[in-house]
Amino acid sequence: MKIKSIETFSTGYVSIVRVKSTDGYEGYGQTAPYHANISALIIHQQIARHVLGKEIDKIDQLSEDIIKSEHKYHGSYLCRALSGLETALWDLQGKQLGKSVYELLGGENRQIEVYGSSMKRNISPEDESERLKKMQEDYGFRAFKFRIGKNFGNDVDVYPGRTEQIIPTVRKALGKETLLYADANSAFSPTRAIEVGRLLEQYGVVHYEEPCPFPNLEWTKQVTEELDIAVAGGEQDTDLVQFQRMINMNAVDIVQPDICYVGGLSRALEVANMAEKAGMVCTPHAANLSMISVFTMHMVASIPNAGQFMEFSVESNPWAEELFTTKFNVYDGKVKIPADGPGWGVQIRPEWLEKAMYQISEN
Q: In tens digits, what is the pLDDT along the chain, a chain of 363 residues?
């Protein structure tokens, strides 16, 4: 079975990729969100020529061949585009074999326990606490993540004192039984990160994400060594060598590859495998309810070192809600892996595809 064509359907937010094989099967994947027109251009201009006419059975090898062939253009955009092709190939292979992706990986169909992930910083501690408490009552979340610091804030908060205010406020609202995660998004220098980390520990927060600017692993390692709270990172990284370095130097306690950022499921699984060998937990990054959440469900159902909870955004993204027919229903803090057919188990809405910008590369 060989790759016959690669099609992209793009909006401003996301590009859906459809791959067709020479024996009549087709699979759907998705690039990383935002600047979708750039990702689609890279697929057709840089990636398609390496894979059209190639066999589909070795997805991981195809991905690495593309990375090597385009070595002068390595990095974020190549990987964001590659994820669209790679995830479409997994869907196609599942349909050809009549199996879900998690079955191809040796996983099992189970409910996935999720933590409610807030993406908001422009919200007061009181309002954030109230809305998370309401979500807990409605959906049974047993864990939540909230935002501290300011994205790449250089020790400057959204407003002075917000970090110190939100930590005890959320804890008080959600009670001592709720597991709390905090995400700094590269906000702090090591000194400030350690200071905030000790406050997080005081209030029983169990997960401290990206405390320092993510490229500076030495800074993050300082924080990890000083604190008892689990430090997490890796969502922005695309280089497998950087992940191996991160793991070898114990810069973090938890690795967080994003399937759509790192270049697809195969490469995210490689990161999980590296972490497993080091006795480290892998909790993939999945910050919106587009196809990335579907991909991640299949992944965490298939790896032995997945974290207790999978990330699940609590924000509404209209651009993601109309992508596919499946609706995510959280009950008792858990979601089911979609099962509307083999592959990823979801059906892309034809009306969404019809409205998107269309491009095709054919053999």
A: 899 999 999 998 999 999 999 999 999 999 999 999 999 999 999 999 999 999 998 999 999 999 999 999 988 999 999 999 999 999 999 999 999 999 999 999 999 999 999 999 999 999 999 999 999 999 999 999 999 999 999 999 999 999 999 999 999 999 999 999 999 999 999 999 999 999 999 999 999 999 999 999 999 999 999 999 999 999 999 999 999 999 999 999 999 999 999 999 999 999 999 999 999 999 999 999 999 999 999 999 999 999 999 999 999 888 888 899 888 999 999 999 999 999 999 999 999 999 999 999 998
Alpha-carbon distance of 180 to 168, in angstroms, equals 11
Pick the CATH number of 3-99+347-362 from 3.40.50.720, 1.20.140.10, 3.30.390.10, 3.30.70.940: 3.30.390.10
CATH number for the region 103-336 comes to: 3.20.20.120
Q: Closest Cα to residue 224, out of 179, 255, 259, 257? A: 255
Parts of the chain belonging to CATH 3.30.390.10: 3-99+347-362
H or E, element range at 266 = helix 265-277
Helix axes 217-226, 240-248, angle to 10 degrees: 30
Q: Which of 59, 57, 11 is nearest to 269 (CA)?
A: 59
Q: Where in the chain is the domain with CATH 3.20.20.120?
A: 103-336
CA gap 137, 142 in Å, rounded: 10
- CA count, 13 A, side-chain hemisphere, 91: 29
CB 115 within 8 A of CB 144: yes
